[in-house]
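Hi team,

As requested, here is the filled-out complex form for the pyridoxal-5'-phosphate run. I kept the field names the same as last time so the parser does not choke. Let me know if anything looks off before we queue the next batch.

— J.
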Amino acid sequence: MQKPHFETNAIRTQTEITGEKEHSTPMYLTSSFRFDNAEEMRALFAGESEGNIYSRYSNPNTNELIEKVCLMEGTEAAFATSTGMAAVFTSIAAFLKQGDHLIASRAVFGSTHQILTQILPRWGITHTYVDPVHCDEWEKHILPETKMILLETPSNPGLSITDLEKAGKIARKHNLLLNVDNCFATPYLQQPAKYGADIITHSATKFMDGQGRVLGGIVAGRKELIDEVIFFNRHTGPAMSPFNAWVISKSLETLAVRMDRHCENALAIARFLESQSAKISNVLYPFLESHPQYELAKKQMRLGGGIVSFELRGGLEAGQRFLDELKMITRSSNLGDTRSIATHPASSTHSKLTEVERLAVNITPGLIRISVGLEHPDDVISDIEQALGHIT
Ligand SMILES: *Cc1c(COP(=O)(O)O)cnc(C)c1O
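And here is what came back:
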């Protein structure tokens, strides 16, 4: 048989160890595992043989999920964490120490910004923010103590695109670790390892689960790097629960078909929004010809993703009014769900940033982010249309 494709790996990567011939992987709700004898126990603890010891280290369900994600991302190894933020935090903390510095895209997730600005400085780890789009300017910020480049593409909620190939080249040239949060794209749309990313993180809470049920995170990369992540996590403890791993692994079976539809619907909605220029001044979607990095998005992404952002001419007031008038689309901070979700970042997820900081990452007062779900796109458009009708 030929080497299986992405979709096949997502479905056929299964743990099968009970001997009961289950067709669907069972859930292994066990905190720990038994050993037949003292020698087996010794060898496992010494790392001389492979097997499950304790579910904070590994579990058949997390093992299945990890194996699957590695095939999807094209990485050698991975570790599953309790949340996306645990993945982002360990992807930095497992590698950096006091005195180290990192270069970070200014357009990182809100909690990642808090880690960089409020938490890591306590341990003497500093950062410099750089523009996500103009990679050519990054090199002048690299210091002797710089160890890592951290970025997210497409970014949230401004949907700017960072050139992964250029970022990979800068990382190689200066011997830095390139750490990419691939949550918005998922491995179906974009595989950062192909461009030289050393570490890839995910909030599996989003499109990977895709149904807004569980939290989870992934850190993936080369084995020698993930061994560091595993050491760090085993002893600090943010492991994914077997139940969540079972849910997310099942969800990945449909990732490709879900993402195809998320992207198709998102493009239709983006095009509708572009037609509403009386009330909307700007529509951001990577696969719209009007996106400033449309060509780059086409080069490194299979499709444009499930998130569309747009700017209401009426500013802050119009943004909040729009949210209040929605009848079907959910007001929630989550994304990557079957249900379409709207947020107004300036008054919620990014309200802790200053106005200047918000504008630096394209968050204008009237910006609305829609995570386009899998409802019929005409129904989503109809809800947006009626809500826009209330804005003067
Ligand atoms: C949601 C999100 C996270 C955090 O994930 P949690 O699972 O909520 O902890 C990190 N990065 C991006 C891009 C996200 O959207």
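Two things worth flagging: The chain is about 35% helix and 15% strand. The pocket of pyridoxal-5'-phosphate is lined by residues 83-85, 88, 109, 152, 156, 181, 183-184, 203, 205-206, 215, 217 (CB under 6 Å).

Thanks,
J.
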